[in-house]
């Protein structure tokens, strides 16, 4: 390094005396040498760094200083009730009593929820200062600060006896190599957010003994690898977020499958593509994840229906979010995909944040039953229960199909005939129309397109009966489900949505 620097010095010196007659070759040679030295001595290194002036560095402030900087207002004249002008964005806004709101925030001893996000907090500060100044804090956002170790967190939390929610995201924390002494420190903590903190699974388990009542744990983007099963820790956890940890696979998930209270599991963007519960056969329920009700698997590599089939084995699952996966994205018919997911998971009540109404479930299951009816017959399925023996391959691909046949009856040959979808005559439904509350009215028979909305059906009947549309109530009966009447309550949906078929009977009542 010294030789190179010395060479540059001589080169610079020689060059400085040749200003009168610029030498192009010398300039070019100088540039090459400068670039080479920069590459050799100043290139970035994984464990390297840069020199910077001390007065340019922010070394941070303690917790209490940051709290006062954000929430404490200097004493001044009382201005409650007076009009003030504040700027929001680029617009001036008139406010009345705004000052009193700020002053209420300034009473530190009454604060229960605070955010110190991105305020360069580096530690607790003077011992006992936090407990004395703000003893009633329950929720703290300390994300994106300068906390460097778990000991700093303990020093803060130990003074907040009512702490329930703590967000430490984006602090590069050093966690203890052994079990920390945490008796009472996090005794009331219910929600802990550790996104992008660099924590490992082993460190989670070591620290978790100090979180006796923790209910929600967020571990997004930590390169987590689940290496061992939680033993006597995390037993109260109801929500676990493992999103954006690309090392997690289905075998690692089985290590957390027996957390007794786990109700919500968030697995977005972990790269998972397959899932199989080895303890449960076709049509059976797994003993894994016994309390799991809410599952999020967005932004993964799910491309096979076998993944969805396995989810039907979960005992308690009723809410699923499966967006932006190869199976549910691309050029496929989104509505058909949604119907098939609903039909394959019998207990599902919400899919991709949309509630599944009973009418939608019935329509989805009937359409699914019809869509795979020919495949079922080729595999050995039959309308006669004594001859109905589809092979194992079909049952593995469609575990609920036999149950749907019991629920709605086996598909008839007429249903399974291939239709020409673009001919209008193949889209018309022949329906009977009855008026249960009007004795003496003849039963009519009409042909209506299956795409016709309930609103338009009501409009047609309004003209026939000379009754306002608002007074009409529609339902229908199907010969396939004798004794059951299904309401057509959503005017914007079509007859096809409600799975109305030729031969069904529309029931018309006037309110």
Descriptive tags:
single chain, 511 residues, alpha/beta, Ubiquitin-like (UB roll), eleven-stranded mixed beta sheet, five-stranded mixed beta sheet, elongated, disordered N terminus, transmembrane, cytoskeleton, Ubiquitin-like domain-containing protein, leucine-rich repeat
Strand order of the largest sheet: 4-6-7-8-9-10-11-12-13-14-15
Q: How far is it from the N-terminal to the C-terminal residue, by CA?
A: 95 Å
Multimer state: single chain
The CATH architecture classification of one domain is Roll
Residues in helices, as a percent range: 25-40%
Provide a count of the helices.
Answer: 15
Question: Would you give the CATH topology of one domain?
Answer: Ubiquitin-like (UB roll)
Strand content: 5-15%
**Care to count the β-strands?**
20
Structure classification: alpha/beta
Form type: elongated
CATH-level-4 superfamily name of one domain: Phosphatidylinositol 3-kinase Catalytic Subunit, Chain A, domain 1
What do the pLDDT scores average to? 84
**Largest sheet entry:** 11 strands, mixed
* The first-level CATH class name of one domain: Alpha Beta
Unreliably modeled segments: 1-22, 40-46, 74-81, 420-426
Radius of gyration: 34 Å
